[in-house]
Amino acid sequence: MDWTLLLQLTLNGLIVGALYGVVAMSFVLIYKASQVVNFAQGEFLLVGAWVCWWLLTEWQMPFWAGFLVTLAFMTLFGVILQVVVLRPLIGEPVISVIMATIGLGIFFQALMKWIFGVFAKPFPPIFSTERVNLLGLEVQTAYLMSLGISVLIMAGFAWFFTASKHGLAMRATAFDQQVAQSLGISVPKVFAMSWAISAVVSAVAGVVVGVVNGVSSALSVYGIKVFPAVILGGLDSVIGAVLGGLIVGVLENWAQYLDAGWLNWGNMVTIAPFYALIVILLIKPYGLFGTKNIERV
Amino acid sequence: MDLAPAGEYRSSYREDMTIFPTRNSRRAVLLGLILACGLPFLLGRYELGLLINIGTLGIAALGLNILVGFTGQISIGHAAFFGFGAFASAWLHERWHIPVALCIPIAGAMTAVVGLVFGAPAGRLKGLYLAIATLAAQFILEDFFARAQWFTGGVAGRITEPFALGSWVADREESYFYVVLAYVVVMYLGAANLIRTRDGRALVAVRDHYLSAEVMGINLAYYRTLSFGIASFYAGIGGALYAHYLLFVSVEAFNILFSIQFLGMVIIGGLGSVMGSLMGAAFMVLLPEVVQAGADLLSGSAIDRALKLGASISFLREMAVGAAIILFLIFEPDGLARRWRLIKSYWKLYPYSH
Q1: What ipTM goes with this model?
Q2: Looking at the domain that runs over B46-349, which CATH code has it been given?
């Protein structure tokens, strides 16, 4: 057993897992507020990262300015998607809504490939020191930033849902739309807001991944890795999403360790979470924290 | 003339359930088939190739429509089953030297078994959870294709033999067209008849209100899993036909985008419509051609130079697929099948449409 390697992989898993957790959280946010399963979540990361990259390289903006403009753009992007595409589909069967988000996903993925090409492009360097030594382990500065931002976003979500007026309105809408309406909450506004927040948060994750690995269409993989995470945590639980993301991140790194050391199957990093997903669905379909659906006739 | 009456004059279930309600509709179908048989003498190889693609994809899309449109389940892994059928047929021929004509149905049956395995969660899961489970099936099967050298030829892919029946070898578009046509007719009649049986009605009942269906004595888990099996069988047959047309199957072809295209066919054709599946497949096959034609039309012009149309045609095709799915969902959720009904009724009632 190579303990240092295992520890390093676990740390990597936690860092990547925190990002999965952030994306999963924004996925759950949309699902809770508007009952839409968003298969285009990965494309939010993609669009956000490319826009930020474009601002930084083509327009030579400083990082903070480009980042803020990206966030403003993503707010608009999320609202427009909700209003133009998802709003006409309210009340349609689940399959239609799912298909609409899948359609959005392939549309934007192809659009980004068309505009920016298929090759990964690196972000201009943001940190002066590339790596730092943390308790004997080499860690990239960008990874530390990623972990910090993830934790910050999670704390932000916690505050938003427990203390802010809009967050409470959103929870009320998720709980019962009619009751929320009778209390003077504008449900269409809440829907649009949930999409905007989700797009912004995903874009932050996208930029972080872009800084670490470079921007390419591989970013949209995060949108798919979200599914094992949210199924593990429960589709409608924010805490579950974070935990699920962390578990999936660690799991895939351990699977890689196992694979490299003993199994030699190859490709376990990408597939292991899906095996886990099938097992979870068979044993505990509502996840660790998800609401059990009790059906009455 | 032998037209359908304007009112409801049917007095028995038998009359209500027929596939072709009037003698003329039967004649029209026969005439259409005879015309289709003449097509290889009229069209070029490229157009025939498109028709063959419509046929093979149409069979698989029909399977997905039975699953999605009739039973109300969602599957985002149909291309993986399609691919399994393709590899299974090629493997059966090479490993066991079974004639290709037999390989295709056996490959369908094998795919049905795989579909039943992955459909097992369908007995317990509904809606979103099922969609995500099938997403996992897509990735696991794709991974299996890349890994199972003995079955798929691994990364190099697998070369397949052309369809042969006795001394007649269907190795050209002109001859293979008949094979696909025969399969399309059999599979579509099979599906149209399935819907009329007790099992078919049970599937629709599960879609419409599964609780009521269960109360009426329909075994939910059984029918949900069964519908997965049927869908995979159709996918397997379609995949096998596809393999023996292209004569080469590669691992990369059966990715999630392909699965989404199948869902697109079903949505665009019309959920819960047998003929709609074929229309949807035709739409999906012809859409890239239209995009290509549009790009060719603009090639050399200023727009082409500014937008790099020629170099990025594959992205434009993908975008067209995505946009088509979204536009159909918003503006014509019942798909081409409904459009077709509207056109028919327009001519039937002309000029007194109100």
Answers
A1: 0.84
A2: 1.10.3470
